[in-house]
Amino acid sequence: MALPVEIVRRVTFTDIAEFPSGAPIVAEDPLRSRIPPGKYHLDDSNLPILNNVAPLIRYHGNSKSWSRIYKASMLQPRSNQSVDVAVKLYEERFFPLRLVTGSPASPHVLRETDEVFAWTESWAYSKMQDLQGLIIPKFLGVFKFSNGTGAEIWGIITELVEGLNLRDYCSNRIKELGSGSWHDVARQTASAIHEIRSCGCANLDIRADNIIVSRTEPTKITIVDFATARPSVGPHRALFDNVDEVAFGQMVKNDICRYEKGPDLIHQWLFVRKMKNKYPRDGWVQSPSWDTIIRRTVKPHLTRDEWKEAGVPNEYDDEEYQDTERQRAD
Questions:
Q1: Which residues, if any, are the signal sequence (predicted)?
Q2: Which of 87, 121, 158, 313 has the most CB atoms at less than 10 Å from its CB?
Q3: CATH number of 164-313
């Protein structure tokens, strides 16, 4: 059964060139910070029509989340063709309890309101215009919606990207094709994070659920969700320059290598070694921001049995490992 989600206004921000621009820095009530009215205008004419609205992600009752995401067919004004889209609503009644204001990664900008989420996504997608449809979804605009509750809800619409999240894809891949069969999508993900940084953005929410892997061949990844994005340079950048790169490393360890046999450190190291040796010209491999992932990774100091458990017993005796052991001893 289709849900009663309708577009009631189109929102156009008048100033998204530089962060934070229209995003508020201070407010009398920080938890209710708002975009100044002069920073956007509303239009209720020639609006797209949504049909066949259904949940893209299943939520349990009043479970807490920063957004609710639906899929729909969207018909543009004066058009006979529909496009499949994702509709992301920032419905504050479902927001998690906010005990603090601001972000630990970027503490000087308040961000946890529906308007600020919508502004931030609009800013981020404008910065990444050249990446849309390639490694991020095509951005189709900010709107206000109704959903039968009587309130107008802020949200965005993007092209619909369907597939498996990175965790589920890699888990299935390892079961079907064996160890290391996830290296290609991990490489694609690292390259995408690097490209996003090159556009001046830091995602700040790199996790397996936000990496969508296509079901078609050749496999293609898409990174979604930029509601918490920040500039990668400038006064409002994230406090840590390589926050997304570190998050990638943790994601590989916790959401991919856990499905491999043996210690996850071994499989992390095998991935990094392959990237350094086989793809040394990749931009992300050469980038200083990836030092903690690429250049500082040392072969794990593990027992022969642990290397055997991981399916690579010969690695325990190879020359590179022995060199590492000698360096440790010195």
A1: none
A2: 87
A3: 1.10.510
